[in-house]
């Protein structure tokens, strides 16, 4: 199975309140299970780094990639 989040991601990023929701996100209370999944699945992925992501989307580089590093 391939996880494809592009459709839901586009919908979320097109929301006029998306930037406000990012600014208000409670980053200090992310559930431990979510942190574990990010550390286990995404951080070790060689393609999951700001330089590689920037080649595809500079917006994604800052919004979705750099904050996890």
What does this structure look like?
The chain has 69 residues and is mainly alpha-helical. Helices cover 61% and strands 0% of the residues. The chain is built from five helices and no strands. The longest helix is centred in the middle third of the chain and has 11 residues, at 32-42. The mean pLDDT is 82.
Overall geometry? globular
Poorly predicted ranges:
none
Total strands:
0
Span of the ends, CA to CA: 26 Å
* Percent strand: under 5%
**Rg, Cα atoms, Å:** 13 Å
User: How are helices and strands ordered from N to C?
Assistant: HHHHH
| Annotation field: number of helices | 5
| Chain-averaged pLDDT | 82
Summarize the amount of helix as a percent range.
55-70%
Q: Classify the secondary structure makeup into a structural class.
A: mainly alpha
Please summarize the sheet with the most strands: none
List the keywords.
single chain; 69 residues; mainly alpha; 5 helices
Give a short summary of the structure.
This protein is mainly α. The protein has helices spanning 6-14, 18-24, 32-42, 50-56, 58-65. Helix 4 crosses helix 5.
Topology:
Elements: H1 6-14, H2 18-24, H3 32-42, H4 50-56, H5 58-65
Helix pairs in contact: 4-5
């Amino acid at each position: 199975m391939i996880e494809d989040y592009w459709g839901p991601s586009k919908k979320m990023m097109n929301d006029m309140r998306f930037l406000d929701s990012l600014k208000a996100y409670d980053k200090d209370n992310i559930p431990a299970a979510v942190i574990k999944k990010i550390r286990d699945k995404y951080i070790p992925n060689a393609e999951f780094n700001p330089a590689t992501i920037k080649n595809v989307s500079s917006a994604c580089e800052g919004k979705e990639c750099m904050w996890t590093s």
